[in-house]
């Protein structure tokens, strides 16, 4: 799947925030990854690791004190160097469909779902005329499995699941080649999490019927169960850097993650070892010169004072060679090997 030409190609993406007093916060550093048509890449990591900043960079929604470097090419356009007019007219909604973190906040509270869908259809598609727009809005709702008899409801009259579907329907209207889902399962119970990610998966597996272009999905999440359920590949972010990029099956199964931080994330899950990673992530404004995970890592030695290069999908001087079965059972021999 990853051999297909990428829909999104990110190379050396970095984001720095310039703070009062000249301080710089390294929110994202040197991110490299592709997302192919028909593929879901899940970008995972703890809160504050930089993954939502990366999403904002792709959408041109960073605050004014942000500086970016590198490139993120989508549809022949570098999203990082595009001007605001291009981002507003070409990127948001048309090249990138955003499935938001909080659908209730994303939807306009005083307008019905139908009216918001019709407005988006009129803005993003070539459909004209009242009947055509109405029909296209109904079709968009159906694609997200939003029930037609709820179209005239306001957001506050919807359950969490239906609000999520309404937001997904809006994200799908422009038929964007990339869906960007930013923490789409936050605040949902487990059944709804499964349902939401299954629906997202459906939109890349069966984008819109025969003849429609394939979509790619970049899902940003701290929910590893959701990532395991939906992703083809996993990118793990720590302190602003992608420290591991792996096939999801190998990552969650065998041989398991190879970066000690990734291994720690899995071992912290209640249905695995339930052992938290000791310590806290470093401040993004005060990162060490070497590996940012060193203070929490039981494999650290003197070599880790030098920044580890990314090799074979993992940025670590001493990657874990263990097996998935050991990781599932939470044994630590492999970590110390
Ligand atoms: S480079 Fe060193 S400190 Fe960093 S994760 Fe690897 S072993 Fe641990």
UniProtKB/TrEMBL annotation:
GO function term, MF aspect, one: ATP binding
Keyword Translocase attributed: yes
Broad enzyme group: translocase
Chemical reaction(s) catalysed: Ni(2+)(out) + ATP + H2O = Ni(2+)(in) + ADP + phosphate + H(+)
Principal location: membrane
Subcellular location as annotated: Cell membrane
Membrane topology reported for the UniProt record: Peripheral membrane protein
SUPFAM superfamilies per the UniProt record, alphabetical: P-loop containing nucleoside triphosphate hydrolases
Self-association state and partner proteins as the record states: The complex is composed of two ATP-binding proteins (NikD and NikE), two transmembrane proteins (NikB and NikC) and a solute-binding protein (NikA).
Family: Belongs to the ABC transporter superfamily.
UniProt-recorded name of the protein: Nickel import system ATP-binding protein NikD
């Amino acid at each position: 799947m990853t051999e297909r030409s990428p829909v999104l190609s990110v190379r050396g993406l970095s984001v720095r925030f310039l703070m009062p007093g000249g301080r710089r916060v390294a929110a994202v550093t040197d991110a490299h990854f592709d997302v192919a048509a028909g593929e879901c890449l899940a970008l995972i990591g703890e809160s504050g690791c930089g993954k939502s900043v990366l999403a904002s960079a792709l959408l041109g929604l960073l605050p004014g004190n942000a500086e970016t470097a590198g490139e993120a090419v989508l549809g022949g356009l570098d999203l990082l160097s595009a001007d605001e007019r291009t981002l507003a007219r070409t990127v948001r909604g048309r090249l990138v469909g955003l499935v938001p973190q909080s659908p209730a906040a994303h939807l306009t509270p005083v307008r019905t779902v139908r009216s918001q869908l019709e407005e988006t259809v009129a803005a993003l598609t070539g459909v004209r005329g009242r009947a055509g727009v109405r029909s296209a809005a109904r079709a968009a709702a159906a694609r997200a499995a939003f029930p037609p008899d709820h179209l005239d409801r306001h957001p506050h009259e919807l359950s969490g699941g239906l609000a999520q579907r309404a937001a997904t329907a809006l994200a799908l209207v422009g038929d964007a080649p990339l869906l960007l889902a930013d923490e789409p399962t936050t605040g949902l119970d487990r059944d709804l999490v499964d349902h939401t990610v299954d629906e997202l998966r459906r939109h890349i597996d069966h984008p819109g019927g025969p003849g429609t272009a394939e979509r790619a999905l970049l899902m940003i999440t701290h929910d590893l169960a959701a990532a395991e359920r939906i992703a083809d590949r996993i990118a793990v972010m720590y302190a602003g850097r992608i420290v591991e990029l792996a096939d999801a099956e190998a990552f969650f199964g065998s041989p398991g993650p190879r970066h000690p931080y990734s291994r720690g994330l899995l071992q912290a899950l209640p249905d695995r070892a339930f052992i938290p990673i000791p310590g806290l992530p470093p401040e993004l404004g005060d990162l060490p010169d070497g590996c940012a995970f060193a203070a929490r890592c039981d494999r650290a030695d003197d070599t880790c004072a030098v920044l580890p290069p990314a090799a074979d999908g993992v940025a670590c001087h001493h990657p874990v060679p263990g097996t998935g079965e050991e990781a599932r059972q939470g044994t630590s021999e492999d970590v110390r090997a």
